[in-house]
Amino acid sequence: MNRFIWMGTGMLIAVIALRQVDAKKTGPGCVGWHRVVGRFTDAMHDFADAVRVGMHERDTELRGALRRNRDY
Question: Each residue of 37-61: pLDDT tens digit?
Fold first, then answer.
């Protein structure tokens, strides 16, 4: 139960801090937090796609090597 209290306190502090920082940012060069999070999630999706492609290629290579070894 104590962990939940500290976790909730930390989350509350983080939300208050982010709102304060976001409120102080003004002007045309300002990028909102929703854009930052959106870019981050897009980058994570791109990374995950690249990892999946690499895993598929490596899986294909390994399966081919196993088939060649079985033929001997």
Answer: 788 889 999 999 999 999 999 999 9
